[in-house]
Design brief:
homodimer; about 375 residues; alpha/beta; 14 helices; disordered N terminus
Amino acid sequence: MSAPARPGGAITAVYELWGDPAGAASRAEALAVEQSHEFPSHLAPSHARRSLGHVLDLSQTGPETVLARVAYPESLAGGELPQLLVLLFGNCSLLPGVRLVDVELPPALARAVGGPRLGVAGLRELGDAPHGPLLATALKPVGLSAAELAEQAYQLALGGLDLIKEDQGLANQRWAPYAERVARCGEAVARANDETGGRAVYFPALNAPVSQLAERVDLAVAAGAGGFLVTPGIGGLDQLRHLAATLPAGLALLAHPALLGSFVTSPTSGIAHGTLFGTLLRLAGADAVIFPSFGGRFSFTPAQCREIAEQCSADLAGLRPALPAPGGGMSVQRAPELVEFYGEDVVLLIGGSLHEGGDLRRSAEAFREAARRATRG
Amino acid sequence: MSAPARPGGAITAVYELWGDPAGAASRAEALAVEQSHEFPSHLAPSHARRSLGHVLDLSQTGPETVLARVAYPESLAGGELPQLLVLLFGNCSLLPGVRLVDVELPPALARAVGGPRLGVAGLRELGDAPHGPLLATALKPVGLSAAELAEQAYQLALGGLDLIKEDQGLANQRWAPYAERVARCGEAVARANDETGGRAVYFPALNAPVSQLAERVDLAVAAGAGGFLVTPGIGGLDQLRHLAATLPAGLALLAHPALLGSFVTSPTSGIAHGTLFGTLLRLAGADAVIFPSFGGRFSFTPAQCREIAEQCSADLAGLRPALPAPGGGMSVQRAPELVEFYGEDVVLLIGGSLHEGGDLRRSAEAFREAARRATRG
């Protein structure tokens, strides 16, 4: 969804209000106050009006839904992502029947937050994959040793996958401690690349305690990682932004949806799929956004997946586009359908099903071949 | 809710599964796999069974609800809060009809995460408030100058409030930049304490970008802050834990619910009120947990508020209890009802309505007097 022109210097949020449309106008007014002043307007000094949100317009879209466009002065965010999130949806996340369905940002604010550091072009360059879908998989399951996971990484890189990420369930468990695991997996992918002349990229899972974050980044960089799998639902969107702002040049960030499902599962509250997985994760710096595609183990509809993919590359104050990375129960057989649906600017993420048959290299090659055929088709 | 005995060394999660009970057993099995291996079990090597979750039991609780107790090996969390969150609800946040309603932790894991640094007794000592409800308010609205907010803080401290927190909407906006604001507010509260002999405690809002966190902590400590208002829905629960583990001794942490509403608004998904605002925020280190009480601007029911309050002090591997801090549209007139409902181990949080009448000191005194009467009654 795209909202009409807004006044300069305003952050515009569009909320879908569920319930009797007769009450929508007063609910929208209350919401604009709640998200800015959170204070009775008749008690606020007149000069505080400079920081008050206000309703731009309302439009009824169904028997029970009204869209309310609310403008907030840009200064309310103070140029900072955490405060922008408080402003857009902090308190009103607690109000039933309110869904954040669109966000428009002044270009200066969007650029201050930053967006993807590599974006689609940079991620393609990183993986030496100038066209066609990027092929990704996950090292798993947790419980294997570092050596076993590294052997998986080696075979998958030999088989020609572009992005070899760790499962979000790999942290620093005793079976495969982080330091040993990234050293072994980084070495394994580099060795495979030497043999094939390819450029598979290794992404360790960086679901780290705050106090361990910098050290785990350093260990992975030393091991030759090309980026990280991050979990902004756990570490916060600003940790993603921080990584995008501070990692060594050339490293990419893949966002995993862990815990973020609670924002989208209810149709009448939370945040719209495209706004959360597209706009906001991209704004925070995700080069690719993993989400469960339709037709897998989860329940996103084709329309919701479409919305995410569109917001990954829609105009967003000139920020780089991100790649949608549909996963969650995909298989090689579905590659043509997925490429048809998402287009070639996509990361195809296939996990467990590559292990069917017992020969990972062969499965990876079949995945590569299926993608090649899908792209030609 | 409290689950029966569990095998030693296991993390137990209880999920409420919504839908046809006939499908619950297979859904629970799939969930246990999803949250641990996320990998087809017939393809996992046999030694990886050491890291597989399994269903302990199922019990139907309604025509559409089944409780599934799932045990995960303690090692799956690796002793780290971010991974524990991935394990408990990461991927299954994306499954509709799955609600996390209880968590039990092995004591060693709970202690490794840490819990409240002060807890109820420590927070009472900090504010020199050995009994009765602690009285709290918020400096607001955003848009006022630092001097104006400091004058509010001064009057409120003179009036005898215990905890003077900043609104979560105060970050580093140009109207009242963080450094100037905390210096002025800290000084104002100290001056009032000097005059009254009281011990009002000032809590700046620490909704900071990751890269600014340490500096803002230092500025506030230098200004005499007694703790921080944190927003774990934005910064992540592990940032709260990190602060609890690293702040100078004696500082308290109040958790604000911004953005956390999306986890609780749908009855059929997300996380139960008591589990999120009680168990998990307390585990992460909140000394007091702010939530919108029944009867205010939001929609939590008395039963949901009761659940939060109970989980703030329920047995949790010996961790300190936290204080429930109901707010969100409370008034002095409701103090007796709130004390009756929550008991005396509570933070009563009244914001905007204290500004009615135009004399903050007097309103604070009336709040104090109402609390005194409620406690005597």
